[in-house]
Design goal:
This protein is an alpha/beta fold. Helices cover about 35% and strands about 20% of the residues. Helix 1 (about 10-30) runs parallel beside helix 4 (about 100-105), helix 1 (about 10-30) runs antiparallel to helix 9 (about 250-265) and helix 6 packs parallel to helix 7. It binds S-adenosylmethionine.
Amino acid sequence: MNYRHAFHAGNFADVFKHSVLLALLDALVAKDKPLCYFDTHAGRGRYALDEIEAGKTGEWRDGIGRLFDGRDIPAPLHRYVEAIRACNPEGALRIYPGSPLLAAQALRPKDRLVLCELQEGEAVALQALFRDDPRAQVHARDGYMALNALFPPAERRGPVLIDPPFEEQEGEFATIEAALRRAHARWPNGTYAAWYPIKSRRTVAPFHRHMSGGPFENVLAAELLVRPDDSPLRLNGCGMLIANPPWKLDATLARLLPALRDMLAQSTGASESLCWLRGE
Ligand SMILES: C[S@@+](CC[C@H](N)C(=O)[O-])C[C@H]1O[C@@H](n2cnc3c(N)ncnc32)[C@H](O)[C@@H]1O
């Protein structure tokens, strides 16, 4: 496994993923009952943007770099930008939080976090980051397998973020589908959010088609293209498939996605979409 998220932390795909994740978590914590957050591919939890990896690609400049210091941030993005600012209390942008850290901020003392990361170095860093947080369990193991072993959680409420590195390219879609089917068999009422890259929309169509055929009754797909998908070797956009989304999340995302497109577009052909693949 070669993937290191530090090269990509804070890029447009992270901004999309993490702003959608916060919208999802906020909708879930609006209900009083405790929940359990699962992160199958958690990463190291926080990334220094002035270190070699992030500096080499500079991807964050067209992501969080466009938002952090901005004055005219559209209202739907305020929540996300404030969460990133909270990780940079000295004012300058230096730290980009990963999904576990953002989730930990958004959750309450009564909630739990189960964080899986397969790469040893990343898992050790994640364990160190959460050492003093009694809500969090860090597992240095395969996140897909953990879903089988740990489901359903005692709380019977909560979101599962599935955010693999897609090193297997299109093959990863089949792996996600299989994981979602197994997860549904054990915990049909969980909320599942699976991130995916979009090089060409054509390659995403089978995934949408399969998920529109079951097993979940309600499936929403949110997507952002920062440029048209006519350059098949580039990451032109990304999406989040959400099974069992909380009530009214679609309305929140309908406001968030155009704001993301406006702020993150890399060409005039940028676009966003939100559609129910099944249900509603
Ligand atoms: C895209 S990054 C995760 C980023 C993180 N979710 C975030 O938003 O900050 C994918 C991570 O998955 C890890 N990984 C790859 N295969 C895995 C597996 N089968 N189980 C758990 N982690 C895995 C990689 O080491 C990498 O850190």
